[in-house]
Design the sequence.
């Protein structure tokens, strides 16, 4: 797909990923969508946000991709599930956007994070964008559920300085109930990252009544600690900031009555990870 068909980049800026965005790439012909996924010349992005201090080390620019193969009950960005809700952007455009921040990101010990949605739904685009970003000397970070990790080659993994790996549940049935998918590929990707000594930060979303089972958390903690490459664990308290998106999109939302976890529950969960020898926050 030639660059001149691309929607201009201005629509990419967003105050936060919590902005509801739909149908931004709806006019893109199906054949172009398929070609984009195959070649990675073009990607679909929900938005770019700047100044994030929670998506990797230092201050980050984050590109939020659209498209996800999972349907996590607690997902707070269901508008990112559909690929064509995103803006079509070429690798060159995305890299140009990042170039603007190169110096500042270096000063602030930050970098670029590709998040989503699930970035590896667009693994060819992700690989090309990471390569372009590394060439600019910017620290790169991939925030992923790991399910499509096998689609990145070993050489491509070398262009990712840090993986933020979401581990959602240990028990296979629980994982399937929570996400709609098997956790086998994610655990396999975690082991591969360990073998290749790629740095990982584990992310664990804590939802009262859903992901607060102590033994389950202990299992994940033991697994993560045993890998040897997990630098830290971020326990992410569930919140209701994405609820309005379900209402606006007409998607049934099952967690309407769930409260965010108490400070005690968050601290207790961090302690469970620390007990396995990990740093947890
Ligand atoms: S993997 Fe992430 S983007 Fe996909 S449904 Fe789960 S929380 Fe949402």
Sequence:
């Amino acid at each position: 797909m030639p660059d001149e068909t691309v929607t201009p980049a201005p629509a990419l800026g967003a105050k936060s990923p919590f902005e509801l965005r739909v149908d931004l790439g709806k006019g893109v012909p199906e054949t172009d969508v398929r070609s984009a996924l195959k070649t990675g010349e073009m990607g679909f992005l929900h938005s770019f946000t700047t100044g994030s201090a929670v998506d990797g080390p230092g201050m980050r620019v984050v590109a939020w991709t659209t498209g996800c193969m999972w349907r996590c009950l607690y997902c707070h960005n269901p508008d990112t599930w559909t690929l064509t809700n995103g803006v079509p952007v070429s690798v060159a455009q995305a890299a140009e956007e990042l170039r603007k921040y190169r110096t500042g990101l270096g000063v602030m010990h930050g970098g670029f994070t590709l998040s989503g949605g699930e970035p590896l739904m667009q693994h060819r685009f992700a690989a090309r964008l990471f390569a372009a970003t590394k060439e600019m000397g910017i620290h790169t970070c991939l925030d992923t559920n790991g399910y499509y990790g096998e689609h990145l080659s070993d050489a491509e993994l070398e262009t990712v300085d840090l993986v933020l790996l979401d581990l959602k549940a240990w028990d296979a049935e629980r994982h399937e109930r929570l996400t709609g998918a098997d956790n086998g590929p994610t655990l396999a990707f975690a082991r591969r990252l360990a073998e290749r000594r790629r740095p990982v930060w584990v992310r664990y979303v804590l939802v009262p009544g859903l992901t607060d089972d102590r033994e389950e958390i202990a299992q994940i903690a033991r697994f993560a600690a045993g890998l040897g490459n997990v630098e830290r664990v971020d326990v992410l308290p569930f919140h209701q900031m994405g609820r309005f998106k379900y209402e606006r999109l007409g998607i049934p939302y099952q967690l309407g009555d769930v409260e965010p976890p108490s400070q005690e529950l968050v601290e207790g969960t961090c302690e469970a990870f620390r007990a396995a020898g990990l740093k947890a926050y």
